[in-house]
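Teaching note: in complex prediction, the entire set of molecules is handled at once rather than each chain in isolation. The prompt given to students was simply: 'Predict the structure of this complex.' The entities are:
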Amino acid sequence: MGAQLRVLRGKIKSVTSTAKITRAQELIATSRITKAQERVALSKPYSDKITRALTALVSHRPGINHPLLNEQPEDKRSAVVVITSDRGFCGGYNSNVIREAEALQALLREQGREPVPYVIGTKGVTWYTFRDRELGGEWVGFSGQPDFASAERVGRKLVEDFLKTDAEGGVGEIHVVYTEFVSMLTQEVQVKRLLPLQLEDVERVDGPLPSYDFEPSAETALDLLLPNYLESRIFHMLLQGAASEHAARRRAMKSATDNANDLIGLYSRQANQARQAEITQEISEIVGGADALADAGRGE
Amino acid sequence: MAIRVALVSPEREVWAGQAEMVVAQTIEGEIGIRTGHAPVLGVLVDGSVVKIFPEGGEVIVAAVGSGFFSVADNEVSVLAEQAELGAEIDLAEAREALATAQAAGDGDNPQAVAERRARARLRAAGADV
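The expected output is the structure of the full assembly:
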């Protein structure tokens, strides 16, 4: 077998096994998107109800005051929470989020603030630690299938740092950069301000709100509701991120599989050509050899 | 006359349906809610038990963590960051969780919460604590 043909057969074999892997990844990602969407749907009743309760509470007590609602103009540090994935193989998912986060940090610096990244997901953490950037916090290990306990951990730390001043290593405001799952084909990077909470953020609900009594008091209720509301928002963002991650992975793996199949086609054609060239050459060598022998015989 | 009840955790809707009465624990004591109750927004004891009395059925007991309940328009919503039905709790596993919480507990706040939650889960599962 000729050298060219051997090389081509080797390439076909390796591309075929790559295609098998990417195809399997594509199928896994597809089934995970559905699961992630189900989880988004399952989390909806809680977030709707807590939003409604908070709206009712706040619209009842217009002058209500809470540290989580207050602007902190004296604190110049801003947290930028970046939600990335733990695993690669998902196309531009992580680089899109990180690019947006960098743009936001540049903007904050222009405004004379000091951005501090808080990173969720191994890919983001690696990106920032490789560049020797100081991280306010890092969480890994749940990007594909976030559970509420993770959102709670993130929320606790953010609230804690928000309530501290600059000097104690706290922050004055918190922004989140994450990917919203719009559809199977579209995922959009979003930048949202998480804290201080803007009451306009709390969506308007239809119809009159019931006039609640509070047990034990409105202040205690607010103390509980605000962090829980925050954690539910973070959970929502993590779930959206997970769904987007799987969608991005599915798309990346699909184009990788398509690409591999194209390559297999190309290499097969080249291999066939090489094989035919080899056969033709062998025939012409045999014929040439026979002619030469016949000529030699005649010459004697 | 029944009242609509929804027991919801951030990860899923744990139980929803019609009930005669719901009993929840607040910091100030137990509160029972029947149909036509005035609108209330109450804070649940972290690591307590919510009882739902459905129409003509067995009492449903659930263990809840940090959360609150709201009553409005003849509907009770119990929202807890951790919520589990007693029937779904594995007794052996819950006992173990309590033992771990007790071993770790030295009166420190988060651990005391973990212990209370573990006790609530056991109570919801029907064990004596």
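Point out the following to students. The longest helix of chain B spans residues 109-125. The first strand of chain B starts at residue 3 and ends at 9.
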